[in-house]
Design brief:
Structural class: mainly beta
Number of strands: 9
Shape: globular
CATH superfamily: Jelly Rolls
CATH architecture: Sandwich
Largest sheet: 9 strands, antiparallel
Number of helices: 0
CATH class: Mainly Beta
Oligomer: single chain
Order of helices and strands: EEEEEEEEE
Helix content: under 10%
Distance between the termini: 43 Å
Length: 126
């Protein structure tokens, strides 16, 4: 057995795309799948940028907001996940703090396993 730490003290501060969060790499496989932990403190943000691959953003603790290629911010909280497709513009943030596991890779279809809480139309109430 081995025990690892992926807490914010082991991470790297990210400021690219006007971001403000701590990035802790967990693993990166030879198949291109990456798993990371994003630590956002109060008013933290993962800046608006285009996804280079499919991304699954799984909120473990806290609450915040996410958006795709539209200006509306959609609330997100613990035990919810957001999926962004390759090349999709997106952003995430929080007023109070948030911790998320992020899985990246060109392979995913989360709808095979999880039910949707929101179908992606920006004018639909949450």
């Amino acid at each position: 057995m081995k025990i690892y730490n992926f807490g914010p003290k082991r991470g790297e501060k990210i400021e690219k795309f006007d971001s403000d969060f701590i990035f802790s790499r967990i693993t990166h496989s030879n198949t291109g799948v990456k798993v990371s932990c994003f630590h956002l403190t109060a008013n933290g943000v993962v800046g608006y940028h285009q996804a280079t691959t499919q991304q699954l953003f799984l909120v473990l603790r806290g609450k915040g907001w996410v958006r795709g290629g539209f200006p509306n911010r959609i609330p997100i909280a613990e035990n919810q996940a957001v999926f962004w497709d390759k090349n999709e513009w997106h952003e995430a943030g929080t007023d109070t703090g948030l911790v998320a596991i992020v899985i990246e890779g060109d392979f995913m279809n989360p709808s095979d396993f999880m039910s949707m809480d929101w179908d992606g139309f920006p004018n639909q109430p949450y």
